[in-house]
Amino acid sequence: MRDSGLGVGVDVGVCQDEASHSPVWGPLRTPPVTCGGLSLALELPALIRQLRAAWRARRGGPRESERSEASRWVEAEKEEVEEGKQDIEDRSTHLEADGRLNAGHAGVLLAERRGSYPLIDLHILKTSAQQGEVESGTRRKVKRLLSFQRYCHASRLLRGLVPHTPGSLHLLDDDYLGQAGHMLSKVGTWNFDIFLFDRLTNGNSLVTLMCHLFNVYGLIHHFQLDMVKLHRFLGMVQEDYHSQNPYHNAVHAADVTQAMYCYLKEPKLAEQLSPLDVFLGLMAAASHDVDHPGVNQPFLIKTRHHLASLYQNTSVLERHHWRSTVGMLRESGLLSHLPIFDWDTDMEQQLGSLILATDISRQNEFLLTFREHLDNQDLDLQLASHRHFMLQIALKCADICNPCRAWELSRQWSERVCEEFYRQGDLERKFDLEISPMCNQQADSVPANQIGFISYIVEPLFEEWYRFTEPSLLSQTMMGHLHKNKACWSRLRYAQTSLETQTEGQV
Ligand SMILES: [Zn+2]
């Protein structure tokens, strides 16, 4: 079963209980409540419920009359968990016979949510270091739960109140309003620190950012969106990113969304964009890497992954990101109130076209068309097709803009992406597969990878974007960072090479 879409499963019984200060044990089993006609009875993972019971007990515990019921409840939950573990162990044993998985992964599977890539992750998660990450993933989910419990408690939404100002932060609880709110007031600046924002929002940067931007643009009102459905959809998207990926995780999606917002604000583009363009641009940015397995397409093809055959070895990942997003859109019913032609035929297709444009193997195709348009000066942004093309370009730029950020942010992204590449390289080495370019930790250094990436992919595209914006202040800032960062990586590579030569000489 899919979880709540609120980051973790949220049992609304808990919120009711906390609001009324009534005994805690009864309401956990109360019937589901509804909000706006939509059921909010969403499952709380048994593990987290157990933790919650333990915390309550430590804090002084329930009254004597409640204690026996509490202990019965905890025992019942334990039994459920044990049954679940047994079930998973049975599945693990079954899979082991299939040669794909060995026993002892029950803990990993417990920590995993519904995902399409258990095979790859489980290989990676074998080492003790990775097990630590699974634990930290669980901690992260517990933190999100606590955040959303406070959200349920304080939310204007569940109290039936509509936020008064378009940009108000009704998704954040009071503890975080100050700092995260202050950051959101500067969301359009290029030095926005998405890592800090993610910490301030307890790992909910993508949901919070998207809701804020939808409010800023008035998209909720324009498309008559149901806030509960929107929140559920965004929660699903955020949760379907793999938090154990060093790079392709929900923070990357939030970062791309923030960059996309900066590009949508570019005067050359902003004046011409329709609400639908903005809606699609933000949605595509938020979901463009959803359920990314942390390995690239060639890896999926050479390991004969089922997605590679499903999408016939072409834009495998991007098609999966798109179709997953469409699945979540339909499951959440976010657009179900619109005429079917609008969302089924038009919106979904346009969303797909934007997400598919992020396929790096199509970089030259887009670059050449973009250059041609600029040379011929024939871009007419009154035309929907030309605006769509520019949204594709903007999303591509947002996706690879890390080297255009200030050094401190840029360096972190570079290290993360290389870490993900190296993990793939380690897997390839382990399974006697040819190691992919840039994935060999022993041969491909971070500075060397970054210099290649900047020179062949980032620079050519951003030079054209610079021309398109004629150039804007933001474009000038980005190019300034890009050149400085490239120079920094060159110095680091030089230092590294000199050190290696010195060491070799001494040997
Ligand atoms: Zn991406």
Write a structural description.
- There is one protein chain.
- The chain has 507 residues and is mainly α.
- The chain folds into 3 domains: 113 residues, no CATH class; 192 residues, Catalytic domain of cyclic nucleotide phosphodiesterase 4b2b; 84 residues, no CATH class.
- 66% of the residues lie in helices and 1% in strands.
- It has a two-stranded antiparallel sheet.
- Strand 1 and strand 2 form a beta hairpin.
- Helix 1 packs across helix 6, helix 12 runs antiparallel to helix 14 and helix 12 packs across helix 20.
- The longest helix has 34 residues.
- The chain is globular, with a radius of gyration of 24 Å.
- It binds zinc ion.
- Zinc ion binds next to helix 12.
The average pLDDT value, as a whole number, equals 77
Written as H for each helix and E for each strand, in order along the chain, the element string is HEEHHHHHHHHHHHHHHHHHHHHHH
Q: Helix/strand/pairing class, anyone? A: mainly alpha
Which regions contain 5 or more consecutive residues with pLDDT less than 50? 1-48, 61-67, 87-119, 121-135, 149-170
Largest sheet: 2 strands, antiparallel
CATH-defined topology of the largest domain: Catalytic domain of cyclic nucleotide phosphodiesterase 4b2b
Secondary structure: helix percent: 55-70%
Radius of gyration: 24 Å
| Molecules bound to protein | zinc ion
Number of domains: 3
Provide the CATH top-level class of the largest domain.
Mainly Alpha
- Lateral strand order in the biggest sheet: 1-2
Roughly what fraction of the amino acids lie in strands? under 5%
Helix segment tally: 23
Tell me the number of strands. 2
User: Cα distance, first to last residue?
Assistant: 59 Å
Overall outline = globular
CATH superfamily of the largest domain: 3'5'-cyclic nucleotide phosphodiesterase, catalytic domain
What is the CATH architecture annotation of the largest domain?
Answer: Orthogonal Bundle
